[in-house]
Design goal:
The strands form six sheets. Strands 15-16-17-14-13-19-20 form a seven-stranded mixed beta sheet, sandwiched between helices. It has a six-stranded mixed beta sheet with strand order 10-9-8-11-12-22, with helices on both faces. It has helices at 46-65, 68-84, 86-97, 101-122, 158-171, 186-197, 212-221, 234-245, 269-281, 301-312, 333-349, 384-387, 403-411, 426-435, 469-474, and strands at residues 8-9, 12-14, 17-19, 26-31, 36-42, 130-131, 137-145, 148-152, 175-179, 205-207, 227-231, 250-254, 260-263, 293-297, 352-355, 374-377, 394-400, 415-416, 419-422, 442-443, 458-459, 462-463, 476-484. The chain has 15 helices and 23 strands. The protein has two domains: 8-255 and 461-480, Aldehyde Dehydrogenase, Chain A, domain 1, CATH 3.40.605; 260-443, 3-Layer(aba) Sandwich (Aldehyde Dehydrogenase, Chain A, domain 2). Helix 2 (68-84) packs across helix 6 (186-197). It is globular, with a radius of gyration of 24 Å. Helix content is 38%, strand content 20%. By secondary structure, the chain is of the alpha/beta class.
Length: 495
């Protein structure tokens, strides 16, 4: 397997400058496919957060006053810069995150470009309303940017999550300080430089690197931050929410999931099998919206499990830089061991391992963090493997008898992020879509994350939405203005 020959260093981007941490410390960045260190980034401290927030604060008044049409132009240029660098960024993303360059990294970059273009256009569509309060007043609302936004993103979609966060914030006139995950900071740093290259003013997009427990927490509680947007696990989301509460900061949280994939007997069988494989094994199952609970109508259960297991064994697991690879590496040795421990737990709970469970038997992959597509059948919904987020290529397969039970099982979770439904019955599709408590539901498609369609969760899967026009509004304050137009004197107390 190809490895990096030299260790590169990627500085932070603060106020338009490429800078290192004031303390001089750095952090290693490893390639999950080899576990070799190939880069370093600054290990920032609170003082670096302070200067990033200061830079964003200085840039905010000018950016907020910039005409929406000008912001649109600059964001479209940003998208063009990203398009020009698709090949090199896809390779950087594959090396840093372990995701396949052909089947994950590059499509995610193209999606990120779509997101930038969407919010570039949306910037000029953010309007207030006139409100008919009375005949002697003119009343209206204004949508105004919040200010400096602190944004914290996870390691599973490093560049894409950065764009999801940055695009609506700056489209609405805010400035940002973004902290990528410690394991995957490289492409976010490259993205910040592209923002500068596109003409977006210095200080509008700042990216800092450092440990989440210290730097991320300090950013979330910083008095100069008006809004915190976080994507990650639910437990950390609770902590972020508590920290932000002290300053009454606006909060958007996109958190964990244990999403259901419901297959009815009347579904197109082959589509349901193939789509269900993609729904769980894309990005090696390291997705908050991974459909990791596969609910199958009992009359087709055995046939579906057999076909699913057979096809899962054909998924190509390997070097992320190989164009034929469909499933790459797990992010770290610790995450790999955590996933394997859940597989063992599932078997102890009584589930049957029908495929996977181990690592590929290839010498070239032994140094990396690889796991075969894994499926646990004959499970029930009270098992821990059916309730807890595994965050890996492991699906739990549960039978159901009727539509009512399918909805009940789907909703029997603390999460409610996404879901998929397979049926050719149009009435059933609408009934189940209304019955399942989830922020996003695909019918006869495993796709998620379409610009313009809200992405976010019910229950403990989070607060707020990403990707939609509503997201733009979440980056604004709503102000009411009332102007007296009456010619009568103002004397409420008749003084």
């Amino acid at each position: 397997m190809t490895t990096a020959t030299a260790i590169a260093h990627y500085p932070m981007v603060i106020g338009g400058e490429r800078v290192d941490a004031l303390n001089g410390e750095t952090m290693d960045v490893s390639n999950p496919a080899t576990n070799e260190v190939y880069a370093t980034v600054p290990r920032s401290g609170p003082e670096d957060v302070d200067r990033a927030v200061e830079a964003a604060s200085k840039a905010f008044p000018g950016w907020a006053r910039t005409a929406a049409s000008k912001r649109t132009t600059l964001m479209l240029r940003f998208a063009e810069k990203l398009q020009e660098q698709v090949e090199s960024l896809a390779e950087a993303e594959a090396i840093n995150s372990g995701k396949p360059v052909a089947f994950a990294a590059k499509p995610e970059l193209l999606h990120s470009i779509e997101v930038l273009v969407y919010y570039a256009g949306a910037a000029t569509k953010l309007t207030g309303e006139t409100v008919p309060v009375s005949s002697h007043s003119f009343s209206y609302t204004l949508r105004e940017p919040i200010g400096v936004c602190g944004q914290i993103i996870p390691w599973n979609y490093p560049l894409m999550m950065a764009v999801w966060k940055i695009a609506p914030a700056i489209a609405a006139g805010n400035t940002v300080v973004l902290k990528p995950a410690s394991a995957t900071p490289v492409t976010a740093l490259l993205l910040a430089q592209l923002a500068l290259d596109s003409g977006i003013p210095p200080g509008v997009v700042n990216v800092i690197t450092g440990p989440g427990a210290s730097v991320g927490s300090y950013l979330a509680g910083h008095p100069g931050i008006g809004k915190v947007a976080f994507t990650g696990e639910t437990a950390t989301g609770r902590t972020i929410m508590k920290i932000a509460a002290d300053g009454m900061k606006r909060v958007t949280l996109e958190l964990g999931g244990k999403s259901a994939n419901i297959v009815f007997a009347d579904a197109n069988f082959e589509d349901a099998v193939n789509g269900s494989l993609f729904a769980i094994y894309y990005n090696s199952g390291q997705s908050c919206e991974a459909r990791s609970r596969l609910l199958i109508e009992r009359s087709i259960y055995d046939r579906f499990v057999a076909s699913f297991a057979e096809k899962a064994q054909k998924i190509r697991v390997g070097n992320p830089l190989d164009p034929s690879t469909q499933m790459g590496a797990i992010i770290s040795p610790a995450q790999l061991e955590s996933i394997k421990s859940y597989v063992d737990l599932g078997r102890q709970e009584g589930a049957e391992l029908v495929t996977g469970g181990g690592s590929p038997d290839e010498d070239a992959l032994r140094a990396g963090n690889f796991l075969l597509p894994t499926a646990l059948a004959n499970a029930h919904n009270r098992m821990r493997v059916a309730q807890e987020e595994i965050f890996g290529p492991v699906v739990v397969m549960i039978p159901f008898d009727d539509e009512e039970e399918a909805i009940r099982l789907a909703n029997d979770s603390i999460y409610g992020l996404a879901g998929t439904l397979w049926t050719q019955n149009l009435g059933r599709a609408h009934r189940v879509a209304q019955g399942v408590q989830t922020g996003l539901l695909g019918v006869n498609t495993p796709a998620t994350g379409t610009p313009g369609l809200p992405f976010g969760g019910y229950k403990q899967s989070g607060i707020g939405r990403e990707l939609a026009f509503e997201t733009l509004k979440l980056y604004t304050e709503l102000k009411g203005v009332q102007i007296n137009t009456s010619t009568r004197p103002v004397n409420p107390w008749r003084l």
